[in-house]
Every structure is written in C-alpha cells, then in structure tokens.
Design a protein that fits this description.
InterPro entries: NACHT_NTPase, P-loop_NTPase. By secondary structure, the protein is mainly alpha-helical.
Length: about 1300
C-alpha cells in the first residue's frame, strides 16, 4: 500500500459542494475558537487544541485543515461528510497515521458528520482511543482491521492512535450543534455572533479556494470589512485587543492640526505621501557637531536620484525590519501615524511608541523591554491588555536619535526583540544627525524624500481642500490664491521642502495672505503666521510676543555668526546678549531665554538635536534661522549694521540673511557698501554685482533712486574695466536694474548706445531692450540686432573652465528682451529673421531660457526651431512600440502564472492594491534592469519553463503569498491584452513596494543547475541576474565549482560579471585557480575585465601570464584591467620592458581619442604609463613623448616626473620652451614649470619674451613670470601695463593681478 496519497485534490476533501460546505463550516468552528482563545475539545487528553492559526488545503497528511495549537503543536484534519467504510476511510486515516509517525504533525483528526457510518462514528472512534492507551484486547472487527493495516504499514499502533481521533462535528443540515457551540464561543468577543458566523463560513470557503492561512489579524480584518463589532469594554483576547487599539488609534489620529489654522483638519484628507529611497550605503557617522548640523540641514533640499524609491505608506509590508531617516520637518512622526492607522485597520496588533520614553522605563524602573513597549504604546489609551505575544505585531518606534547615549542599549534591545519575534514588523525613525545604527546596521534603511515641484503644488491644494472654511466660496478663493502663488518658483521651492512647509503655505492661502513672489517676503509672512499661532505647550507665564521675537533674532544671529555649537554655549551667548540689551540679571535672562526656547520648540520651529556626545539647538529649517539673523541685522544701530553688511558681502554663506535684511529695510545701505567695496577692488563684491541686484533691487521693498543711481554708476565703471570679469557681472546687474528701475539706468545706457567698446555697447542696448521704454520701435531694433550678434565678447578659457562671470547672462537678457518686443504684435518677416539669427543654435542659452523662448513663440502662434532640435533628434533613444512593450509585459506575467492555483476572476484585480505583484517586481530587481532587458523578456523563447521556475522561486524567497501574486498577475495581463494603452499605464500604476528575497539558503535543487547556467549565459540580464542569485544559494553544494567553471568557460560580456561574482564565493584557492584558467587559457574577450578585478594577492607567474594575455588581446576593457593588475607588481626591468612594448602597440590598437568631445575610449596605456614613468624617469625624450600624447591621463601622469627632471636640467627646460613654441607640447606644462619657479635669472628673461608671442595660450602660460621673484619690478610694471590691453580676458586679468602685486602691502583694497 502506498504510504502517501497518489493524488491530491486541488480543492477540498470532496468534489461535491456539500463536502466543500462541510469543510468550510469546520474551518469556521476552528476560527471561532481561535478568536475566543478557547480549546476546541477535539483532542482532549491529547494536547491543548486552542488554535492560534489556521491553514486550508495544507497538502499535508490531513490535507483539508491544519491548525497550530497554543503550545505550538501542529494538528491536521481530514473532513469527510457522509463517510462510509471503504478506501476513503482508510486512505484518510493512514495519511494521518504516516504524518504522526514521521513527526510531520503532532496530532490528526478525522472529522465526520452525524450522517456518516455509525460504525466509524462510534465503534472505530472508540477502538482508536483504546489502541492509543496500548490496549489491543476487546477490539471490534473494524478496530482489528485498522490495527492490521497499521501493522502492515510498519506503524506503531499505540504511538499513532494516542494522537489520532475521529470526531463527529454537527455542521450539516438538520444538525448544527457544533455550530451553536462555536457561536456561543463567539459571543465572548463579538457583539452580534449570529451576524459573524456567516462571515466566518465565507472566510473558510475563500481559504479553501486559495489554499490560504488565517491568524487572528486576518479574521479580524474580514469581520471589520463586514462591519462586525467586537466587545472592547473588557479585553480578554488578542482579537479584542486589536479592535480596542484600532478604535483608539483612529479616534486620536482621525484629525490633526495645521500650523496657522485654529481648527483641526481630517488626517486622511491632508495626508501627503512621500517616497522613501533605499540607502544602500550606511549613514556617515559625523561626531563633529558643526559638520553634522550642516549635513543635517542639507536633508530635504532636493530629491535624490539614482536609488530605489518606494511609497512610504507601503513600508514594512514585505521588508519587515527597517529604519526611516528624515531631515527636519519632513514628516517622520506623521508617517508613523499613517502606518499605525493602516496596519491597525488591516487587523495587526499595532504599537506606536517614542523610544526615549521606552528607554526611560527600562533604565529607571528596570522594566522588560517588551513590557515597556506595551506600557508606553497604551499609556494614554485606558486599555489594559491581557498577556499577549507581540509576535506578528507592528511596532512603530519614533525618535531613536533622541535617545542620546542610550542608543546602543535601544538598538541592542530592538535587535534582540526582532530575533525573538521574526514575524513582527518594526519601523524605527530617526533624524540623520545623532543616529547610530548599532545592531540595526543590517536592517533596511530608507530616507524620506521631499516632493517634486509638481507634487508639492498638488499637495498644497489638497491641504486647502481639507482645511475647514465658513463656506465653499472662501475655499474657492483660497485655492485660486494658492494657484496664483505657486506660479512663483520661490513658492514652489519652499513647498517642496517638506509637508510642514506645504501646510504653512496652505495656511497663508487660507487666510488670504499674499506672500509675494520673493523669498524674503514669503518668510516674513511665515514668521508672522507662526508668531500668531499659540504653542501647544503653553506655560503658566508664556513669554511675551516681543520676547519671543527677540529670542529668535538672537538665536538666528548666534547660529549664523558663531556657527553650530553646543547647546549650552548657544543658550549662554543668547542669555548674555539678553542681559546686555535689557539690563536684567543673568539668572532672569537665562530663565526668559529658556522659556522662549520652550515656546518655539513646542511650535516645532526650533529643535534640539544630538550627536552621540553633544546636544545642539537649531532651527528646523536653516532658512528660518537666516531670516531671524536678517531681522537681527535690521535692528542693529547704523555702525553695527555697516560692519555686519561688510562681513555678509564678504561671506557668501551669509547671502540669504543679507537678502532678508535688504527686504527688512537695509537695501540702500547694502547697495552703498557693495559699491564702495567694488570700487576698492574687492573681487567678492565686484564679481557678484548681479547678486547685489537680486538681493536688494528684487527684494520687494522700495529703494531710493539716489541709492540705485550710485550703485548703477559703480556698475558702469566696472563695465568699462576691460581687465576684469567683474564687467560681466556688472552688465547683468544693470540689465536686472533696467527692468524695474529704467529711470535710474536710462541716461547712461542711451549715452553708450554708440560706444566703441563692444561690451559697453552690448550692455547699453540690452538694458534698453529689456526696459519698459516704449520709444524703441521694432524696425530700429531689427537693424541693431544684426550688429549685436557680433558684439558678444569673445571670452577666453586659457586657464581652463571656471565659475567666474561670463557674458552669457547678458546675452540671455538680450535674446529674451528682443523676443518679447519682436513677438509682441504681428512680427514682420525681417524682424523675425533677425531674431532667429540672434538665437542661432542657442549657444549660451540655458534650458530655462529656451523654455521661456518657447512660451513667447507659442503665444505668437509660432514654433521655435533651433539647431538644437537636430542635435536632440540625433540623441533620441529608440524605444519599443506600445504593442511590443505590452507583449513583453504580458509574457512576464504569463511566466508568473501557476496552473495549480484556481482561477478566481475579479479578486485582487485593482492594480492600486496589487501589493504582492508589485513586491515581486521589486524582489526580482525588475525596476533596476536596463531598458533593453525589460523589453526582451521572451529571448530566448525556448527557456520559458526555466524562467518561470526562477520567478516562482524568487517569490517564495521573498515570502510572498504566491496565490495572490498569480491572481494579481492574471488581472494585470487581462488588462494588457484587452486594452493596450490602459495596460501600459496599469503597470506603472502599481504601487512602489519594497521587497527582498533571501538567497542565502538553497532554494532550488542541484538538478536545476543546468537551467540556471543556461539563463546566465544566454538569457537577458533580468533572468541572468535572478538565476545567478539562485545559483548563489547552492554554493555549499559539491557541484557548485563545476558549474562556475562552465560559466567562466562559456561566458562573454555581462555573463562573466555574474560568473566572477559567483566564483568569489568559492574558497580562495579554488576561485583564483578558476579565474586564472579562464584568463590564461581562454580568449581575452569582452567581460574579462570582471575577472581581473577579482584576482587578489599573493600574485605569481600565472598572474603575469594572465596580464600578458590581456594586453595581447583585442579587448580594450580587458587590457585596461590587466594593466591595472600589472601596476600592483613591483617594478622589474625585464617585465617593464615588455609592458613598454605593449604600451607602444596600443597606440595603434586603441580607438582614437575624441578631439572635439565624445566618449573616451578605454585603453591600457592610462595604467601602463604609471609603471613606465617610475622605470624611465631618467629618459627625457620618453617623458617629452608622454607629454605630447593624445590621451590627457598619460600627459597628467608624466607631468610631475617631468617637472622634477626639468628642475635639474637646463637643457630640458630649454627644450620645453622650444617644443611649446613649435606646438609639440601644450602650454599648460610650461605654465606649471614657470609657476614652480624653474626659470630664474637669464632663463626668466627668455620666458618674459614669450609674453609677446602671437599665440595667446603661450602668452597666458608665461604670465606667472610677472612676479618680482623672477623679474625686476620695472619689467613687471611695463609688461603688466602692456598686457592690460591684450585681446584675451584671462591675460588682462592676470596682468591686473601682477600689477596689484606691486602695490605696498598695506595698500587698501
């Protein structure tokens, strides 16, 4: 007789519907006792059969139903309706017996209905119990038959029957006693058990269909969906605790507050979902307080790109242990509230705690960590939970960084808790500053990402829809105000910073407050809003409004001026200033400062942050502090203001505070001082003339014409200075000024329209064109545009690219101003042609300018066409058609399918909720694959079975419910095949969910190795990657080395990357031997560079052979990797000579170096030269050859050895001058030699003659010789003065610097 069933039915113990109903009702009975936490009574005297979880269609000995008892014992049950003596009886009993004997289950139950054979219900049931007591006497015929069957199967009758029972379950028509008992059990926890019973039966049916599993959380979820209320007044069970916590969480978090809005708003309505990005590298631990705070304030400024991003609301669904890091005001605590609402609604035991409170209980009262979690989570709820396990719970932990030096204790406790409760989900949040991963370093780490501009706009409008208004007309008006405000980039940038900023902007709109279009006016209104909003932590004597405001100003200036420092130093400094201003004793000042700090902490504007050893005080946003510092400057006396403005202009990091100060009334003073500094030659002022206008003129406050006129005169003087790039910044400043203050610029601009200096003339005309002047007519403009095309100054980049001012900004003003005038009416063809000629190929126009031009042309009913269109068309990537794309997606989902899972159309069909399918795409790295891999899924088509195996196995490794995955994939595939356009959108509408497959253990048998190898070698990258991960799980198997050898031998290109990675998991000696065999015996093909990178010391003769093979081959990538390996060897004469031969050979083998830009081709020479310069530094001719090489990396390596040799050789220095003059060498190496002081005395005079060269590059390279260290002062003076008129700006600037070097040291600059 077979020891196992030869076939398994897909659904239920019987194909008949009545049998299915019987099985579903038995499942419902088990679930009723599971909810009530009461024993079922079927196994009385055998084990405690209080169920903890239920399985349907287990595929095990019982097949139909399985459940885990309170003591962890596994019970399985076969359900047989109307059972009679025969094969069905004996097959079912023997399957249970084999399972008991083999230890697969701890007990088995054959469940029969009352209309089954009485011989089975009574006689056989009694005889089995008798056999279980070790008694074989007194058995009836059916009992003896059973005993003989056990003996024939070599099974111990006493052992088996001790744990085997036949029970009669009255759960059929006309006999519902068992159901009545179950309903009575339900009445203990459910308000209306009669309504709950049908829900449990339907739940049982669904579990049978999907072969699912149910725990209290799952059953509670079904009851909640059916609106079945639980009793929560007296909590005695886990499911009641779930319900009570859910009710409490939804009660306290149903609404929230918005800063600046007096009434509460619905939490769900204003929830703003952010993305989280996986942090693949650990956070840098920064102990230095100042650096840590600077890095902290960088968080949230911009979205990060390049890593995997997921929707924050899906955190912990499949990756169950994680840490979420977020910058100031980004919404870490709000995210935990959202997760608490979601997980509790899904039926999970959800605990939300602040970790500083938990650690306080552990340390102060010596409480167990687990008990402390429960106490803190439920402290304000009034819920008194029964003893309950936290396994399978959701633990949401806030503020890890605030635990300070106790962090190691907390992280160790969390790690130990996670090990003891593997099914528990744990989410920990922390600021980046002060965070130490400790024992959580192995957990998944995420960073909360700010919103994009477009998402931020929608978020502001969403909050406005949630804020209560007296009527809809007021709401509509606020929405209209917000939309108008969000057109300004400043407002968009602020909104995208964080949810806090979004709610503040929404509050401004709700109050009808216009923040203006400038940053200064925006933050001014935000501060007024904050000062008007009461703190939630009001003390008995809160600080007065003047006190609160002055504290912020002192704090802002303290942090700006003195940098980030320890909290005690900051507070001490603020208290000292407070005493100096008010005359109050220090103790009173300290008290008032402390009270103000507490007030602003309560509002969330100021916060305490900690490193492991220090605490600091900072603004939640750095910009808040910069605005406060600007207010401080605006309230100082005149002498102090002048000093602070000078410091601010000379300190670029203070730019924002200076801008705010200008908005607050210091604009005339800032212009005056800026002009004074520029006139004295202060480059930090003169190079930033345009900043002065942006900070002051565009600050949105009136500025006197006299102050502007003085500044404009200073700018015109700078424009006329041909020896400084400050003329470019000054030109842009004048253009900006002309737009708003044309009356100030007009006279000087009109006087320069016919100026002989092209730059003066260009600036003057651009000022006129961008001004509101109506006297300039289009025909006159058309004539002038033709000449202005040639007026653009020719800049020089003799010293390489730099960030100093250029004339491109004025050109952008010219193009946009001309376009606005020409396109204002019906443009004449001649004018339009002149404009198109001016735009040309859009050189020096940035993307923003091109977009503005596009808008202007569209408004005129025209199309902007430039040479860029042709350039962009050449760079377009060829994308697949919609039908091709959908075909490959449908093919992927076909591979996901599993025929053994019953079709259940309509279930799990909503793509927005297809979490398991989305998780599968993440676990298989689908979103990280190259586009070419994604749209070539069906290549090769013959490997579909192998591909399907890989996908199914990865899903299992990620812990996904595969039945749900299959049904969601079927629904998605149906959409794709039914509607191409909607199908493509459906894929990208899937939620972004994190999931991670565990590949450390074997997931497939060794018989699958050939299939995996085939996919790695011949499949696309998607399947190669996942196959390699599965093969990695077999690394302990004896067949693994042979598989890797085959992969290395047959691999090419990317398959060798996977092969090399898999080889590295072998023992060191085996790995190195296989790699060397492939490199020495195989061809040097693409992908071999991955193998070289895996070679490690100690090196020997075979490594030299491998290097030689790589250098002899045709693959530049492999040769380069071989050369990198060669560079690790000691310099040996014979070997180096061979490397020099290969160096010379690759001059012709490598692809030509692109002269005009483009992709730089690989070459081993960049690495070989590092070896050769060590061995042949004495060969001057060789060094000169290297300096003349086409490849910059080769020239760079040769530079220092050459300069060292030239310092000791006059002839080499002379040769350098000759070769530079002849054009054999680039002047840059000559410039380095001159700067290094290699030319002195008579040689210096020779260099000085090169200042007269017709080649500007040579003149520029010789410029460092203009120094009294090398030449007589009178020669420096005469040559410098002459070069002030040079055609190249770089040379004029260099000459100007040389002349300033002749001035006395104490001269004022």
């Amino acid at each position: 007789m077979s020891t196992e069933k030869t076939t398994k039915r897909t659904v239920g113990g019987s194909a008949a519907e009545r049998g299915l109903d019987f099985q579903a009702r038995i499942s419902a009975i088990v679930m009723a006792h599971l909810l009530a936490e009461r024993p079922i009574g079927w196994l009385e005297g055998v084990l405690d059969d209080t169920p903890l979880e239920l399985d349907a269609e287990t595929g095990g000995p019982g097949d139909d139903i399985g459940f885990v008892g309170r003591d962890g014992k596994q019970v399985e049950l076969q359900a047989k309706r109307g059972l009679q003596r025969g094969s069905d009886l004996w097959d079912a009993l023997l399957a249970l017996a084999f399972g008991i004997s083999a230890g697969r289950i701890n007990a088995g139950v054959l469940a029969v209905c009352p209309n089954s054979s009485a011989t089975i219900r009574e006689t056989l049931a009694e005889d089995i119990a008798r056999l279980g007591m070790g008694r074989s006497d007194g058995l009836r015929e059916i009992g003896r038959d059973w005993a003989e069957r056990l003996s024939a199967a070599s099974l111990d009758a006493s052992l088996v029957c001790r744990r085997l029972r036949i029970v009669v379950i009255s759960a059929v028509e006309g006999s519902r006693d068992a159901e009545a008992t179950a309903t009575e059990r339900l009445s203990r926890v459910i308000q209306d058990p009669q309504s709950a019973w049908p829900v449990l039966i339907e739940c049982g049916r669904r579990l049978i269909r999907v072969r699912g599993r149910a725990i209290p959380e799952d059953i509670y979820r079904d009851l909640s969906l059916a609106r079945i209320a639980l009793k929560t007044n007296d909590i005695g069970t886990r499911v009641q605790l779930l319900a009570a916590i859910r009710e409490w969480l939804h009660r306290i978090y149903a609404s929230t507050t918005v800063l600046g809005v007096r009434d509460t708003v619905p939490f769900e309505a204003c929830w703003l979902e952010l993305d989280v990005q996986v942090l693949n590298e650990g956070l840098a631990v920064q102990e230095e307080l100042d650096k840590a705070l600077r890095r902290y304030h960088e968080y949230g400024r911009d979205r990060r790109y390049g890593g995997q991003s997921f929707q924050s609301r899906t955190i912990a669904r499949f990756v169950k242990k994680c840490v979420v890091v977020g910058g100031p005001g980004i919404g870490k605590s709000t995210l935990l509230k959202r997760l608490a609402l979601d997980y509790s609604a899904d039926g999970y035991l959800t605990l939300l705690v602040r970790l500083p409170l938990v650690v306080a209980l552990v340390i102060r009262e010596g409480r167990r960590f687990e008990d402390s979690l429960l106490d803190v989570a439920l402290s304000a709820s009034g819920i008194r939970p029964p003893f309950t396990s936290l396994d399978g719970a959701v633990l949401l932990c806030d503020a890890l960084d605030e635990c300070g030096h106790q962090q190691p204790l907390v992280t160790a406790a969390l790690h130990a808790f996670s090990v003891a409760h593997p099914r528990t989900r744990i989410v920990v949040t922390s600021r980046p500053i002060g965070y130490r991963a400790g024992e959580l370093s192995g957990w998944r780490h995420y960073e909360l990402q700010p919103l994009s501009d477009s998402a931020a706009e929608q978020a502001v409008l969403r909050v406005l829809e949630a804020i209560p208004f007296a009527n809809e007309a007021l709401r509509s008006r606020a929405v209209a105000v917000a939309k108008d405000q969000l057109r300004a980039q400043t407002i968009k940038d602020a909104a995208s910073r964080s949810p806090l900023m979004i709610t503040l902007l929404a509050a401004l709109s709700a109050k009808g407050i216009d923040p203006g279009s400038g940053k200064a006016s925006l933050y001014r209104q935000l501060f007024l809003l904050l000062e008007d909003h009461p703190s939630p932590r009001l003390a008995e004597r809160p600080p007065s409004e003047p006190e609160r405001g002055r504290f912020l100003e002192l704090l802002g200036w303290c942090l700006l001026c003195h940098g980030n420092e320890a909290a005690e130093q900051t507070l001490s400094r603020c208290a000292r200033w407070w005493s100096e201003e008010t005359g109050q004793p220090s103790l009173i000042s300290e008290s008032r400062v402390s009270a103000c700090l507490e007030y602003w902490e309560g509002l969330g504007i100021v916060e305490r942050v900690r490193t492991l050893t220090q605490e600091a005080i900072t603004f939640v946003y750095k910009t808040f502090g910069e605005f406060a510092a600007g207010r401080y400057m605006s309230k100082c006396d005149l002498a102090a203001q002048r000093e602070l403005v000078v410091r601010s202009i000379r300190t670029p990091e203070w730019k924002e505070s200076l801008s705010f100060a200008s908005h607050l009334g210091l604009a005339p003073l800032i212009l005056e001082i800026w002009g004074e500094l520029a006139e004295r030659g202060d480059t930090k002022a003169s190079y930033r003339f345009d900043d002065a206008i942006e900070l002051v003129v565009q600050a949105g406050v009136p500025v006197t014409d006299d102050a502007l006129a003085r500044f404009a005169q200073c700018c015109w003087q700078a424009v006329e200075n041909t020896a400084s790039r400050a003329r470019y910044a000054a030109g842009e400043a004048l253009c900006l000024m002309s737009q708003e203050h044309w009356n100030v610029v007009r006279e000087a601009a009109l006087a320069r329209l016919e100026c002989s200096d092209p730059w003066d003339r260009l600036v003057a005309w651009t000022c006129l064109i961008v001004s509101p002047d109506q006297e300039l007519k289009v025909p006159a403009l058309t004539d002038e545009l033709r000449s202005l095309q040639r007026a653009q100054p020719t800049d020089s980049y003799l010293g390489g690219l730099h960030l100093r001012p250029t004339g491109s900004a004025v050109r952008r003003h010219l193009v946009l101003g001309a376009a606005s005038r020409v396109l204002a009416g019906s443009p004449e063809p001649e004018a339009l042609q002149a404009l198109n000629d001016l735009i040309g190929n859009a050189e020096q126009l940035n993307i923003g300018t091109i977009q503005q031009l596009q808008t202007l042309f569209e408004r005129a009913g025209l199309t902007l066409t430039t040479m860029l269109d042709q350039q962009w068309s050449r760079n377009k990537v060829s994308l697949p058609t919609l039908s091709d794309w959908n075909r490959e997606i449908a093919y992927l989902f076909e591979l996901v399918d599993d025929p053994s899972i019953k079709h259940d159309d309509g279930e799990y069909g909503d793509e927005g909720g297809s979490l398991e399918l989305a998780a599968l795409l993440t676990a298989t790295s689908y979103w990280e694959m190259p586009l070419s891999s994604v749209w070539e899924m069906s290549v090769p088509p013959s490997a579909s079975m192998s591909k399907s195996l890989v996908i199914h196995t990865v899903a299992r490794a990620a812990g996904l419910d595969y039945a749900r995955v299959v049904r969601q994939a079927r629904a998605m595939r149906k959409q794709i095949l039914g509607n191409e356009e909607r199908g493509a959108r459906a894929l990208f509408a899937l939620p972004l969910v994190d999931a991670e497959a565990g590949f450390n253990q074997p997931l497939v048998s060794v018989e699958c190795m050939p299939e995996l190898e085939e996919l790695i070698l011949n499949g696309n990258e998607f399947f190669a990657h996942n196959s390699a991960m599965l093969l990695y799980g077999l690394r302990e198997q004896p067949e693994y080395p042979s598989a890797i050898e085959r992969l290395l031998t047959g691999g090419r290109g990317e398959s060798l990357r996977y092969s090399a990675e898999l080889a590295s998991k072998l023992p060191y000696g085996v790995c190195q031997q296989l790699l060397l065999d492939r490199l020495c015996l195989g061809d040097s093909s693409s992908g071999c560079h991955y193998l070289y990178q895996r070679l490690t010391p100690p090196y020997g003769a075979r490594h030299i052979e491998a290097i030689r093979k790589g250098l002899e081959g045709s693959s530049a990538e492999a040769a380069k990797a071989a050369a990198e390996l060669a560079a690790t060897f000691p310099v040996d004469g014979a070997i180096v000579s061979e490397w020099r031969t290969h160096f010379n050979q690759w001059k012709t083998k490598e692809k030509p170096y692109p002269k005009g830009g483009g992709t730089v081709p690989d070459s081993p020479r960049d690495e070989l030269v590092k070896i050769l310069v060590q061995a042949y530094a004495y060969e001057h001719v060789f060094l000169l050859e290297l300096l003349a090489d086409d490849r910059p990396n080769v020239r760079s390596v040769a530079r220092e050895p050459f300069l060292t040799a030239a310092a000791a050789s006059q002839s080499l220095r002379t040769t350098l001058i000759e070769d530079v003059q002849s054009g054999s060498l680039e002047p840059v190496i000559f410039s380095a030699a001159v700067s290094a002081g290699l030319y002195q005395g008579e040689e210096a005079m020779l260099v000085a003659r090169l200042l007269h060269s017709s080649d500007a590059n040579i003149r520029y390279a010789a410029l460092p010789i203009l120094d009294v260290k090398f030449l007589p002062p009178e020669l420096v003076q005469s040559e410098g003065a002459r070069l002030l008129t040079d055609v190249a700006m770089d040379i004029r600037e260099g000459a100007s610097r040389a002349l300033r070097g002749l001035e006395p040291p104490n001269a004022e600059h």
